[in-house]
Recover the amino acids of this structure.
């Protein structure tokens, strides 16, 4: 098992985090039109920008091209959207959020050599990926409780 999160003490495990500052250029054929050919400082920024594509004010996503991943996460929250007088189409977003993350991770895998190396080496060693989230996941009585969506994406990549 390879457990990773943004605050991990292990540099390679921390590097797998969506908060890692590794620029991501969205390809011209990305499934969300508003996202195409944009560059974001991290996967977290790009993911939060995807949300704005399903809002009543998609132009706000340009702000996420130059802020920190923490600021991007805040901007994509309910409070962040309200602050920007933006409403998310929650139903549409729920239908594409996992696909958005999966596609973004694929972009990183094929463009970030270090990321791909860490993933490939772990998979060769037979390790499964577990993303420790700061909220929404818990380890209760030695048992994992949570969705581990990012871990599942990495387990099924390439």
């Amino acid at each position: 098992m390879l457990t990773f999160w943004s605050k991990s003490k292990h540099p390679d495990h921390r590097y797998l985090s969506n908060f890692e500052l590794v620029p991501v250029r969205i390809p011209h054929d990305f499934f969300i039109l508003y996202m195409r050919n944009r560059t974001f400082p991290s996967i977290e920024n790009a993911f939060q920008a995807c949300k704005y594509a399903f809002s009543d004010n998609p132009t706000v996503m340009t702000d996420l091209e130059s802020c920190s991943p923490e600021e991007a996460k805040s901007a994509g929250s309910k409070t962040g959207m309200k602050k920007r007088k933006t409403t998310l189409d929650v139903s549409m977003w729920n239908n594409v959020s996992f696909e958005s993350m999966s596609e973004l991770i694929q972009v990183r895998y094929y463009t970030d050599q270090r990321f791909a190396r860490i993933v490939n080496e772990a998979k060769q060693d037979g390790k499964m990926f577990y993303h420790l989230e700061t909220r929404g996941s818990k380890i209760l009585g030695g048992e994992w409780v949570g969705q581990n969506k990012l871990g599942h994406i990495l387990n099924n990549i390439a």
